[in-house]
Amino acid sequence: MRKKVSVIGAGNVGATLAALIAKDGLADVVLFDVVDGIPQGKALDILEACPIWDSPVSVKGTNEYSETGESDVVVITAGFPRKPGMSRDDLLHANAKVVSEVTENIVRYSPEAIIIVVTNPMDVMTQLSMKVSGFRPERVIGMGGILDSSRFRTFISLELNVSPQDIEALVLGGHGDLMVPLPRFTTVKGVAITELLPEDSIKRLIERTRHGGAEIVSLLKSGSAYYAPAAATCQMIRAIINDEKRMLPCSAYLDGQYGISGFYSGVPVVLGINGIERIIELRLNDDERINFERSVQAVKLLVEKLGI
Q1: Cβ atoms of residues 40 and 62 within 8 Å
Q2: Contact 119, 98 (CB under 8 A)
């Protein structure tokens, strides 16, 4: 029997993600939204593309949470997107209400599911979903590190004029302006970028990565990024459904790792059929650790604002 993935929110991220899952034939897809007709229409459009993609999966749109029942993975993309001039943190209270309601329905209809949270501010919304669901932390995962690392890879590839396929990048910390790209762990075919680029160029690329989402928001004028976030989430789903044991940077609940307890933050994890199967703890130097702790502190302040 094929796996089932439900995507909550049929906006740009959710609909793009549903299409990617269907194109890869990863799982049957249910696309949920509260607006009548939107998930049904987008799901039908995706379903009509499946013969062209040689994909056997089913794609269904719905306004009923019951249709998402018995999902193996549920992805929360629902919420309000950023507008120019807004930070991810500006969405805190509005999206907290949405994520809480969605999570309650996930628990009701898919009590064995793994939850992936995309809604911003992502690390805080992931912590909220974990608390509301009562699920074990390894079953509630935030998307962020893969996206941030992909942006870092992209900017490095443009700078060096090399294929992004040859670049491995690592970004730790919260999915926000204080994220921590790690040049020491970022390589081109095994060669650290510190050997390939001058320090000022690396600093410039780090800053562009930190503000990569805002750059897209400012260009679009309305709405925010969705192709890359959807692709990052799809990679997580593939690793979970296929039990790939992939080591990927994701937002995970820290319980003593990196000297942090009680908060979500982006770290390398191994993703498999059970969700986060283990957290990889790197030996950070003093500067990296200071920046990481500063990033986690920003997440902590938002968690405290919500009282969770």
Answers
A1: yes
A2: yes
Helices 227-241, 145-160: inter-axial angle, 10-degree rounding: 120
Report pLDDT digits (tens) over 18-41.
999 999 999 999 999 999 999 999
Catalytically active residues are: 175
Q: Is 195 left (phi over 0), alpha (psi -120 to 50) or beta?
A: alpha
pLDDT at 286 over 90: yes
Q: What is the pTM of this model?
A: 0.95
Q: Hey, what amino acid is at 296? A: V
Neighbours of 23 (CB within 10 A): 17
Question: At CA 88, angle to CA 82 and CA 91, rounded to 5?
Answer: 75
pLDDT surpasses 80 at 175: yes
At 142, list the tokens.
């935030």
Q: How far apart are CA 247 and CA 173, in angstroms?
A: 16
Dig out the tokens for 172 from the structure.
């730790």
Peptide bond into 198 cis (omega under 30): no
The domains found in the chain, sorted by start residue, are: 4-142 (3.40.50.720), 145-306 (3.90.110.10)
CA 285 to each of CA 185, 206, 232: distance values in angstroms, whole numbers, following the listed order? 12, 17, 28
Distance CA 24, CA 116 (A): 18
- The answer on pLDDT for 127 being more than 90 is yes
Could you give phi then psi for residue 254, rounded to 5 degrees? Answer: -95, 130
Is the pLDDT confidence value at 94 over 70?
yes
The whole-angstrom separation of Cα 298 and Cα 177 is: 10
